[in-house]
Amino acid sequence: MSASSLPKASTAVSAGRFDVRRMSWKRLTAFLVIAAASAGGITYFSENFFVLRADGLVLRDRVVAAAPYEARIKQVFVHSGDYVQRGEPIAILESASMNRNLAELAAEKAKLKSGIAHLEARRVAADQLVPVAKVNTDRLRDLLRLLEQNRDRGMTNFAYLQQVTTAAYAAEEKLASVRAERASVDAELRETRSALAEMEKANENLRSAYADGLVLAGASGYVGGGVADPGEVLLPGSKVMEIYTSKPFVLAYLPDTSFVAVEEGHHVQVSSAGRRTLARIEKILPIVEPLPPDFQKPVRARESGQLLRISLSGDDDFLTKQKVHVTGCLIPECAGFGEVASAMVARASVALNRAYTVGIGIAAQELELIMGLAADLPDLVRPANAMHPRAHPRRVAQRPEPTSVPAPLN
Q1: What is the per-residue DSSP string for 82-121?
Q2: Whole-structure pTM value
Q3: Which runs of consecutive H residues, i.e. helices, occur in 255-383?
Q4: Residue-wise pLDDT tens digits, 299-324
Q5: Do the beta carbons of residue 76 and residue 214 sit within 8 Å?
Q6: What are the tens digits of pLDDT across the range 24-55?
Q7: Rounded to whole angstroms, how far apart are CA atoms 11 and 7?
Q8: Cα(168)–Cα(137) distance, rounded to whole angstroms?
């Protein structure tokens, strides 16, 4: 091979295909990194411009079993994840304050009953005195009338008449006093009996609330996490456990910066941890709340979002309180989005495999050509007289003449 044939071969190679010797991998890598960073930045900062993207939590309607008084947990019958029926015993509480209150109410009730008994005795006495006082008064009235008639005839002493008049007045006063006592006793009895009824009602309500410390399930459902332990002391209103009653739903936060039109009834995709399911926007709540800390984006100001209630198609798709991502549908038939996405991923994977295979083949051919050129490099750097065929007849005769450069691979 002559020295003049090497540039021609190189020119032919460069004209026919991409020359790997002139490839700058550093520039290519920098370009790919810049492109990936630009694409990520555009996706990050242009979120909710074209397709709905929101974060949410999987929740259920719940009923809280709490201690309405200060108590200590004596026993717990259920555990997290258990299913309970409404009215089923779930725990037993002990409360010294409730026992003391019940004892005080019982003592007050006993006092009221004693007062009622005393008033009833006074009323019986008044009932017996009223007729006697009335008869005595009537007799004195008749006697006084008779004495006044005899006084006009001169047959009655004035001093005696005065005595009878005083006695009649005392009898009238006694009758009025007994009648007033009778009315007063009746009023006191009504008030005391009313107070006793209120006391008994309060005692009954307190006993019903205490129920000997037995805590019953307020609804049917699954017991949530955070069940109180036996021996734990609870303040009034402290939670014993939570019972999740309804089907799961997603409470999503639509950022204020969203430009996507959202309407009730629209279908969306809910995904988390590699699981995806179809869902529907059930209600757009007229409430705006700050996003939870887990949903806040870095290098952004604290955001708020309008609440969306999204109904799930299945009951066991996601776990309660699981963080999920809500995405709008890219095609009208949202139900087929998963299949379309899977097909697109499969096609892209096949295309990448083919490109990889073709690239490996081309790289192998380029490497073979470079190795062939490198084998001729020692002869190219020898002196001109050393390259004459006569100087090395055996060596030249053993190496055939190079053939033409192969055509570029398609």
Answers
A1: -EE-TT-EEEEEE-HHHHHHHHHHHHHHHHHHHHHHHHHH
A2: 0.52
A3: 337-375, 377-380
A4: 666 777 888 899 888 766 788 888 89
A5: no
A6: 666 667 777 777 776 665 555 555 556 778 88
A7: 6
A8: 6
